Amino acid sequence: MAVFLSDTERTRILNGLEANDTLLCRFHMALHKRVYKRVATKGLLGPDATVAWYYPAAEYLSDAAMLYTLGPEEKLANWLRTVTLDIARTPAYDWVGPAFRYHSEPLTGHLETAHLCWALSAVYDLARDVFSEPEQAEIRQALTGKGIELCRRWIDKNTHLANWRGILTSGVIVAAAVLGAAGDPDETLLDQYVLEWKRCALAFQPDGSYGESLQYGNYLAFALMIAYESLCRKYPEKAALLDIGAYGKGIRWIASSLFYAKPLADNGSSFWGIEPRARAANFNDSAALFRPSGDLLLHLAARSDSEEEKRLARGLFATYYEPVPNQGPHELATFGMNNDWGFLTLPLLTHETKSASPQEADLPLTTSFSNGHAFMRDAWNGRTIVAINGGGDGLYGPGHLHGDLNSFILIHNRERLLVDPGHSCYRNLIHGLESSTQTHNTCTFLIEQETLGLQEDKAKTTMLEQKSVLPRRLLVKNVPGPPVDRGNRRLLVERDEVVSVIGSEVGSAYGIPIQKFTRLWLMAGSNVLFVVDRIEATQPVTTAWNWLVNNRDGQAQVDSLSTSLTVRRNEAGMKLFHLGQGKIGHPVYGYVHDAYHVEPNQYGEGKPGSGLLYRFTEAAPAATRTVVHAIALDDSIVLDRWQLQQAENAFTLFNGQKQWTLIVQDEAANHLSLISGHGRRWDVVPQDTMYSLIRV
């Protein structure tokens, strides 16, 4: 019995293929196509590769090994033997990773090292008979002397808790488990790193969300998953010590973060094809084209102790993988950058689990999570989504943050109208800029202002932005320190009938002189959103409100007036009214990225102007202000019917059929009233340090 494939799983797969089981045949055929495309290149990388060899090694070799063990073929065996031995014989210096990784002596491992452990372990486990005895000894030596040793050095040298520690720990466990199952057990080593696995799982928030991003939460969970799967069949007593619920609980956060799947147009390029592609809330370093790894979803569906988590995970796989088994690219799949299904999908598909959609699981339409992410929907599969990075708890695994607190993504009719920029290659000069507060849908402050009046000159004055580089959460004597406070506080997350309200306070994320930046989002039905900001400072500051419009495919039609912004994208439209003292300028040509790539100027990286950054900037500084933005959402063709009427502290959006009025009852306290066209009223009322939504 192999570590990654039990006898029962093998039998079920082969019987299912013989019986023409639709799902097993679909993914087996896709696996065969994927593997033999690479076999035809006679090496690891084909002519269309955009990455260095160590990035896709884990997915390419594990895919091939699983296909081989289910149906050995000489051509595939020769490819596996050649590529695997080439990697095994590569010097330790190259196992460390690319040139930008530290290569000083004594050599330490990095993410790429763990991936090579996964790659060789899968082949050694599933396709060992491809190699002679001396060749098997070479692979064992590479795994112990390069893989395990280099990974252990990194773990011993570093004490912070985040995704890296989990990936390196997984490299050790997977290699040790495979070697042990093959007759070379090191129980002491496995036991030591099973304990390390348990520490790594503490990087997740208590509700299973993750403090870095969706992308890195998936990456860490994937690493812990593959370590668990390397243990559960041969070392069930060790696997029983691991709590996959630490990340399994996060399936609710993931389900809430996913928006929809549809084709991705790309300004003349056919790279992304015509298949539907998943979109998600890409706060911090994450991709807008995000779906959880397929193997991870099926792992949760098979292994979770929670029936709801099992069904949700299986439902997400059915939605985002079953219709598109051949969707690529596959070269950054295990690296957590462009997620895909992998070699564990076939065995895990043999574990039957019922599926459920978020609606069937009765997930709330308005909700928030410990990491600060919050969501408002008019309905599951409805017309409008507001995704917010707002108030949260201390972060259990901080890192890869942007200055995006009180920023939000706005979706209507399956179009992202206001977007998060995402991120590109870390070695791009613009990465620092696309991570900064000024490129997100939140506020920045000018604390010095020259007499020059042009917008580009104002942007070069001293700008106050959020602090997004936080201290790491450190292990002290193997015990994690306290969570790291980002300076964001949850004020309110409530829904009553068609009204949802979310509020957060993030003033301390900016530091002196900002005392308060409270933002409240009030969503009424599918068409109306009010955003109310209360800003207080110890000295007068000039506030700039930043709005990043999605123009990634050149399809945004934007009209701007001095106090309003109208955006149309295909069938969706947004009309935003600024009701403060700010004046709009010509857009700054920003970036909106689809997916991260490890190299610059590759697929997924946005071009200048893919984001249109509009700023409403105050003409004069002030110490306090309450500013309302009223946003109407509708089909593009009828958007002009929406109008705004203002009477002192009352702001009404109406289109002849629907009407909603926001009244600022008490500016300093943020006491607000929301009144429908039928006269129903909801009040947002401050209570101690929080707020409440009360239907009057």
From TrEMBL:
Any one GO cellular component localisation term in the record: cell envelope
InterPro entries: Chondroitin_lyas, Hepar_II_III_C
Family matches, as Pfam families: Hepar_II_III_C
Residue span(s) of domain Heparinase II/III-like C-terminal: 395-582
Compartment list: Cell envelope
Superkingdom of the organism of origin: Bacteria
Gene Ontology molecular function: any one: lyase activity
Main location, first listed in the record: other
Name of the protein described by the UniProt record: Heparinase II/III-like C-terminal domain-containing protein
